[in-house]
Structures are given as structure tokens and as C-alpha cells.
Specification:
This protein has a single domain (11-199), classed as Rhodopsin 7-helix transmembrane proteins (Rhopdopsin 7-helix transmembrane proteins, Up-down Bundle). It is 73% helix and 3% strand. It has helices at residues 24-51, 58-75, 78-85, 94-121, 124-133, 137-165, 173-198, 201-220, and strands spanning 11-13, 91-93. The protein has a two-stranded antiparallel sheet with strand order 1-2. Residues 41-121 form the G-protein coupled receptors family 1 profile domain.
Length: 230
């Protein structure tokens, strides 16, 4: 029987964001900083919602899960990318690539539908109808701010995905895709906790309360004594 020549694929070569070696350490520091802030921001948001009973509402339930999904899906790609910045051999195994792609796409779709569910929970149609009935510009601005933070997050996430997969192909498709992928992989999970905390009165008030309680507890609690009680 004739033998057919076949090659078994065991790993893939990753091109990375740039092929300039002098930029690799700088990019490593930059994305490491972004990843640390993303982890702290999303974990802090989850902890804050869990600790403050005033945030135990459907909207913040979705927000807590959104922070968890952001934390997970950015963690599927960032460690491998950080490793490649400092490695001469920029490869990933076939199994590793399959698992990473599966988790990343699954979590990305989860965030896609979660943002849609949060929009439904906010009742955008009722908010827009209420805004149209308000005569003063100041009143409309205050009413619009109730869903402004969510609209910012939705625009950033869906906008970059739209540019990634709907735009027509060009000669610079690969380079443009790298830049766009950075936004929905790193920038969106980084900004979501900041957007929802800085533009949300309930979250800011809960954060102030938690910090105030910790300060008071630190001041009132006496330092542990080193002397053994007789």
C-alpha cells in the first residue's frame, strides 16, 4: 500500500503584537500593569458588591458576574502573551491553543449576552421614554446618567467587535486586527470596573462606607500585645 506523506501539527508559532525585539520588554511592563489593575479592579468590584447589602440587587448581580467574566477571559490570553514577550520561542502547543481558544470564545460570548441582559434589566425603553417627557436639559442629563455607564461599556465592547468582524478586508487587516483585539481583550475588562464605579453613586457610596468602616476598625482596635498574660 502506498504511504502518504503527512505532518502532524504539534504547536503554533505566535507572531505577537510586534516583531521588534527592543519593544518586547516595554510591552511586557505595560501589559503586566494593565493585567494587575484589571485583576484588582474586577476582584474589588466583586468583593464590594458581596460585602455591601445595598448592592444586593439584580443590576449589581449582573455587574458582579460581568466582573468575574472579565477577569476570566482576560486571564485566558494575558499570561501566555506576557510569557512570549520575554521568550525567544514564541509558540503554543496544539492542545493549549485549542483550550485557550475554546475558553476565550465561550467567555467572550458570555459577556456578549450578559451585557444584553443588563440592558434589558435597565429597561432602556422606559428610560428613553421618560427622558423624552422631561422638558429641561438638566433633567434630561440627570435621567440619561442612570444608564450612561452601561452605554459606555456596551459601546466599547460591541463597537470593537463590530470593527473586528464586520469591516471589509484590507491590506492591513492583520495589523488592524491586532490593535482592535487589544481593546476588547484588555481595555474593556480594564475600564469596566472604573466605568461602573466612577459613574455610579451607589457603588461610590458603598466604597466610601467600606473604607470608613475599615479605618474606624483600625483606629479603635488596640495593637496586639507582645507580652504574655500571666
Amino acid at each position: 500500500m502506498p504511504h502518504s506523506n503527512s505532518t502532524k501539527i504539534t504547536e503554533f508559532i505566535l507572531l505577537g503584537l510586534t516583531d521588534r525585539p527592543e519593544l518586547q520588554p516595554l510591552l511586557f511592563v505595560l501589559f503586566l500593569f494593565v493585567y494587575i489593575v484589571t485583576v484588582l479592579g474586577n476582584m474589588g468590584m466583586m468583593a464590594l458588591i458581596r460585602l455591601d447589602s445595598r448592592l444586593h440587587k439584580p443590576m449589581y448581580f449582573f455587574l458582579s458576574n460581568l466582573a468575574f467574566v472579565d477577569l476570566c477571559y482576560t486571564s485566558t490570553a494575558t499570561p501566555q502573551m506576557l510569557t512570549n514577550f520575554l521568550s525567544d520561542k514564541k509558540t503554543i502547543s496544539f492542545i493549549g491553543c485549542f483550550i485557550q481558544c475554546y475558553l476565550f470564545i465561550a467567555l467572550l460570548l458570555t459577556e456578549f449576552y450578559m451585557l444584553a441582559a443588563m440592558a434589558y434589566d435597565l429597561s432602556y425603553a422606559f428610560i428613553i421614554a421618560a427622558i423624552l417627557r422631561i422638558k429641561s436639559a438638566e433633567g434630561r442629563r440627570k435621567a440619561f446618567s442612570t444608564c450612561g455607564s452601561h452605554m459606555m461599556a456596551v459601546t466599547l465592547f460591541y463597537g470593537t467587535l463590530f470593527c473586528m468582524y464586520v469591516r471589509p478586508p484590507t491590506d492591513k487587516t492583520v495589523e488592524e486586527s491586532k490593535i482592535i483585539a487589544v481593546f476588547y481583550t484588555f481595555v474593556s475588562p480594564l475600564l469596566n470596573p472604573l466605568i461602573y464605579s466612577l459613574r455610579n453613586k451607589d457603588v461610590k457610596q458603598a466604597l466610601k462606607t467600606i473604607l470608613r468602616q475599615n479605618v474606624i476598625r483600625t483606629v479603635l482596635m488596640p495593637p496586639p500585645s507582645n507580652k504574655l498574660q500571666q
